[in-house]
What does this fold into?
Amino acid sequence: PPNWLHIPIGYNGRASSVVVSGTDFTRPNGQLKAPDANAPTFGPSRRLDIELEMGAVVGTGNPLGKPVTVAEADRMIFGYVMLNDWSARDIQAWEYQPLGPFQGKAFCTTISPWVVTRAALEPFRTSTPEREKPLLPYLAEPGPMLYDIALEVGLTPAGSGEETVLSRTNYNTMYYSAAQQLAHHTSSGCPMRTGDLLGSGTISGDTPDSYGSLLELSWGGKTPLTLPNGDTRSFLEDGDRVTLRGHAAGDGYRIGFGDCTGTVLPAIKKD
It folds into this structure.
């Protein structure tokens, strides 16, 4: 959208369904409306997806009414986690206009078990890309604000012990840093609190093997992925297990985040 080159687009979420890696979750029910239908129906999502993201954990907050600079926002961030913002694309497609995601994302967000501190990631800082349009001054960065973190998505299909790596990308491909996101979040005077979690948004590279969601990898379901066991996937099926991994590699060492894993359980039937 036109505002993307000027502003980090986002929406407020919820903490109640943020879970640690290894927590299974049920396929969400919701309102669904086919393009040719006159009215919606209620039932299980049929286009359940992943979103490969990083999460920034706020360490210190800001008072109500006091915006912070990007430099201040960077110092406010305690550390980072891997984050899978599971998404029901069909529920989301019906509900998001004009107000944005709600039930299509509210059911579960999985984070990795370790919060890697900002201090530990200092050697891996890198710059955001060259701007296509100048940013407003409050989003100006005083230095490199992204990190060189290698990322991958693995899928183990239901009934199989064999994992397939669907995508490999890097956190350094993002257009906005977490510090810019945090500075923008406070720009209206919104107070942030210790423990607040900011998701980066889907991390996708320039090539098809670096996309961070099944929506992109399968081109919205038009080109299903074929797995080594012969199964195909456009979106997730019951029993599928998804694992996100990430690490920063130094000279003779690497810093990992731990696996960020979740398995899809069948939807709860509604009468």
